[in-house]
Write a structure and sequence with these properties.
By secondary structure, this protein is α/β, with parallel strands linked by helices. It is built from 10 helices and 12 strands. The protein binds NADP nicotinamide-adenine-dinucleotide phosphate. NADP nicotinamide-adenine-dinucleotide phosphate binds next to helix 5, helix 6 and helix 9.
């Protein structure tokens, strides 16, 4: 019997998730369908209930629904609680709905497995204190970096977010406060790349042999990927690998089978005709 899955979000027409999950299903021999549905925040509860009442087994939730999904879930995992956001809902055997967050784990897998980077002992800078920034902090801390600084346009949000983690290696600040500091890894979790902009970064903030990673991705190198190239990053990457890896983790939660991601990442990179692997 075919099991049904979907991604809800607004907008959603651009979503690569149906393609990714159908690829994983074919690869692992799982009988499932996966569709994308535009759902406005005001329709979220009714749409999710209807989906599960009609036999749906699992959902991904994307912008702007992740906080609503967190509130909807009957139980949430520790990583969803740290993120205060859910991107994966899974129907349990007892009829309850489990909420998890696979975004941070997807990023860390892309960095450490696909790109063979070591995060332990490094100084990491996160640009942005929105939903994505919040979701990646816990999984990054699990990698034991030396320092994790969150810089945000609205400084108070970065400071408050850092405080939530109550860890001496985590600090929040504004972009101007980064002057004179150096980081081995800079992660752009702002939405600036979506409009071709950049956060205002002081010169010298990327250490020699440093790595840049934009959580955003597109069919062209993002503004931040280009900033990394211009600032001699040893690697300047975008979030396509994170997207595939967070999906693989969701697939594992739903189906108990871990798909291979490498072939799909290569295929998606070939299709967009640009190489953002170094
Ligand atoms: P969000 O919650 O709306 O947060 C947006 C962040 O960007 C905030 O920190 C905001 O600062 C900052 N920002 C917006 N415009 C800015 C500007 N002009 N200058 C400086 N900072 C600016 O968005 P999100 O959900 O965290 O998503 C952030 C990015 O991550 C998006 O590009 C999204 O596509 C990407 N993402 C990728 C994946 C993946 O799988 N690859 C997964 C999740 C998210 P203020 O607080 O000051 O407003």
């Amino acid at each position: 019997m075919t099991d049904h899955y979907a991604v809800f979000g607004q907008p959603i027409s651009h979503s690569k998730s149906p393609r990714i999950h159908q690829f994983f299903a074919a690869q692992t021999g799982q009988d499932l369908s996966y569709t994308a549905k535009e759902v406005a925040p005001g329709q979220f509860g009714d749409s999710v209930r209807a989906f599960f009442d009609e036999g749906g087994k699992g959902l991904n939730c994307t912008v702007p629904l992740k906080e609503l999904a967190f509130a909807f879930a009957d139980q949430t995992t520790a990583r969803a609680q740290r993120a205060k956001a859910v991107n994966t809902l899974a129907l349990q055997n007892d009829g309850s709905v489990l909420g998890d967050n696979t975004d941070g784990c997807g990023l860390v897998t892309d960095l450490t497995v696909n790109h063979a980077l070591t995060l332990a002992g490094t100084r990491i800078l996160i640009l942005g204190a929105g939903g994505a920034g919040r979701g990646i902090i816990g999984p990054l801390l699990d990698q034991a970096p030396k320092k994790l600084v969150i810089a945000n346009r609205t400084v108070e949000k970065a400071v408050d977010l850092a405080k939530e983690f109550d860890n001496p290696i985590v600090n929040g600040c504004g972009f101007a406060d980064l002057k004179g500091q150096e980081f081995a890894i800079i992660l752009n979790a702002t939405s600036t790349s979506l409009s071709g902009q950049l956060p205002p970064l002081p010169e010298g903030v990327l250490a020699g042999q440093g790595v840049c990673y934009d959580l955003a991705y597109g069919n062209q190198p993002t503004a931040f990927v280009r900033w990394g190239w211009a600032n001699n990053a040893v690697k300047s990457l975008d979030g396509l690998g994170m997207l595939v890896e967070q999906a693989a983790e969701a697939f594992f939660i739903w189906r108990g089978v871990r798909p291979q991601t490498q072939t799909l990442i290569e295929q998606l990179n070939t299709e967009r005709g640009i190489l953002i692997v170094s």
